[in-house]
Amino acid sequence: MIINKEYVINYFNSGIRDTKDFKIGIEHEKFLFDQNENKRADYKTVLKMFGELSEFGWKPITEKQNIIGLQKEGKNITLEPGNQIELSGDKLNNIHEACSESHDYLFELQQVTKKIGLKIVSAGFDPISTLSEVPNNPKQRYEVMTKDMPNGGSLSLDMMYRTCGTQLNLDYNSEQDFIKKFKIINSLVPISIALFANSSIVEKKNSGYMSYRSKVWQDTSRGGLPEVFFDNMNFEKYADFAINFPLLFIQSDREYLSGKNYTFLDFMNGKIKEISNRLPTEDDLATHLSTIFTENRLKKYIELRSMDTCGWDCLCAGPAFNTGILYGNLDETYELISKWDKSKIINAYFEAPKKGFNTELMGKDLLYWSSLLLNLSKKGLENRDVLNKSGENEKKFLNHLEKLIDNKTTNADHMINKFSKNENLNELYDE
């Protein structure tokens, strides 16, 4: 049982790995649409897709007899609130392996979706549907979330039902290593928003935002970029942050109850009468940490969460960019960002969803910083020198970003240009 803060600190300490054992985990979400009607796939159709994926060795994950996901080896496919699907990849050794995993999944997904009449949209925000048009599913926790989340952020339901992102999970080799990495990734959130922007079309119109997904997350309950994240967060500080953070839900006898009146500290102190004042387990802690929806967060690894979902041609670019910085060129990047002012980073964070590369940070625009950081990442991947069978290192996955920066355009610009030519919805679907 977890009865005090030291247990939580020890939980974070248990995530420490030798550098040689560092892993990379990628999670990415996709929208599914009916091929003929341009409507989001309902739960019945998703079940049909899950059934077809079983031919590739995927096994069902159930909750009260309802299938809510699939698993295969170290990978999971999970069902999001509006029937978005998310691949949570295995923990792999390098970007070559992680990217190969994603493209194997793409192959399987394409075979199945074509067979049953579905199309895929790789964007950070649903470009077609209104909120009321998005179907739901019987996953229990989403019922609690749908009821409680709007109380803390007016766009919380949009986050749940109409966004898709790419997340990256990376390791740390000490508490000091975590402190450096966490400060870097929080400082780079505005750059991540601008560089990976891919959610400009909303309800079939140009929203005026480069990343409308990021705008939504800024007005989402339990989300945002807390100022405390810039104060050299160590394990104890993050433990304080987490245990004083409200609970989203509480699990009792396989039921999900609202946790809105309690913090995790209340849980540790045995103050939750709805579950007979029981104390939290490590599983309860893991669940709580996964329901803190900030731009970045700590579990037994660091999770980066500021990237819009993008097409399959650029999927590996974001993970490669951050891996080069955090695994290959940490100190040089830390020296750079340590000179930045916290208030200016936060200001850029709020401006970046709309202004993209034109956002100012420390007297320079984010295009300038993106270019500088891309070079630091490239250097980092060269330092790692992890080669594929063709003798290429991981920097090959940065080619997409290099083109964007050279052309001063983002995936969002390409989305706007393609759709605006004739407002053809087919332009929004993956090829």
Task: Provide the descriptors you would attach to this structure in a database record.
16% strand, alpha+beta, two-stranded antiparallel sheet, 431 residues, single chain, globular, 17 helices, Creatine Kinase, Chain A, domain 2
Can you characterise this structure?
This protein has 431 residues and is an alpha+beta fold. It has a single domain (5-245, 292-419), classed as Creatine Kinase, Chain A, domain 2. The chain is built from 17 helices and 15 strands. Strands 1, 2, 3, 4, 5, 6, 7, 12 and 13 form a nine-stranded antiparallel sheet that branches. A two-stranded antiparallel ribbon has the order 8-9. The model has no long low-confidence stretch (mean pLDDT 97).
Separation, N- and C-terminal Cα atoms: 50 Å
Number of domains: 1
Instruction: Using the 3D structure, state the CATH architecture.
Output: 2-Layer Sandwich
Query: How many helices does DSSP assign?
Result: 17
Which structural class is indicated by helix and strand composition?
alpha+beta
Which consecutive residue ranges, at least 5 long each, have pLDDT under 50?
Answer: none
Share of helical residues: 40-55%
Q: How many strands, which pairing sense, and closed or not: the largest β-sheet?
A: 9 strands, antiparallel
